[in-house]
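tool=predict chain=A
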Amino acid sequence: MTETKSLTLNGASHTNGKAHTNGKIKVNGDVQPNEQLVDAFADGTVAISANTPELVPGLVDQVASLGKDVNLQDHKDRSTLLEAARSLVYALETPREAMIRYCWSQATLYAALETGVDLDVFAVLSKDEKPKTATDLAAATGADPVMLARILKHLAAMGVILETGPNEYRRTGISSSLSMKRYNDAYPCMTNCITAGVLALPAQLKKDSYANPSNGKDCAFQRGFNTDLHFFEFMKANPEIASQFNNHMSAYHQGRPSWMDVGFYNVPSLFPNVEQNDVLLVDVGGSMGHDLSEFRRKWRDAPGRLVLQDLPEVIAQAKIMQLHWSIEAMEHDFFTEQPIKGARAYYMHSVLHDWTDDHCRKILTGLVGAMKRGYSKVLINENVIPDTNAYWETTSLDLIMMADFASTERTEAHWHRLVESAGLKITKIWSAQKGVESLIECELA
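tool=predict ok
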């Protein structure tokens, strides 16, 4: 008589058969190795073979085709080719190579970059096109020449600077940008207020039994930076770090399509029935007023008043920066009642992603009470994560928000749930291109 053996695979029962399940099978309740998978992993071929070889031929053709007629000054052309090239690299790269890139190159590159910024190496290197030796750069910066030569070699290996000979280097676009504070502040900024929180995320998630973070005063940020302060309280207590953060954010937004550009949002649709003494736009939590200043430059003849709102210390700083005379600066905490009633539009740029849904609901409810039905709008300038093919900048930012704010970048469905819970409805989501913040247009429900 033949014995019948029962196999439990992924919760289903099978008879006298085998199936792959994480390299093991269960026979009569006992875990048995799946010999085929064990052999594949044991000889190392998986780790040293191309990641997705079946995609390589098509991606090679795509890169070659796109490269023939690419206009590098056209953002869409350049970014399409860049994404195809990245996809080709990921397909060609072996798991072993990816592991070393994740574990070695990224952390060490960051250390090299921050060291170079602190030494002003990039400012010296970028004075002109002339190649400079490691010895020259060490003399100019006061660094140990042996140490600096090691740093420079890694920066060249990672494409930050260009190697022109033995221990000799020339500037690139990246290194030239790193000679400017607006861009090089990003590196100490990350070290001083972001990265330790992100690195603490796995331990924090494990402690919380892998629940979605929801408390901005008890998340990975506090663990990583050994503080009881919320991120924004930490910024207030450390003004130099806050300045670095503001520079980083301004650099992040540079060169990206803006909702007020022609062809993005229908800006003139806001103008009818707005008189000169009416409030056209309230920038809620608008920081230094960069967005309103941009709006005034691009729409000089727009009717009505522009009002910038933020906390007292921020408004004081904005006034020092000499806002355009037509922008009114007002102290306001967006968790309290909105004092400007019946404005045409209440605008928020990257405000709600800093906060949990409960906090966002409070912010939005404060606006609802000030809106005029059939006239007022809420314009939310934020990321909308697509259901598929999300962009890496957006998914990276989502995990940063999870770690350091216990907040999130939201999907379209999430945005609908959130605004509707506050008494609003989304009338349209305006988008320009992948990875760029959309404009979510809302009215009273």
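DSSP finds 20 helices and 16 strands in the chain. The mean pLDDT is 89.
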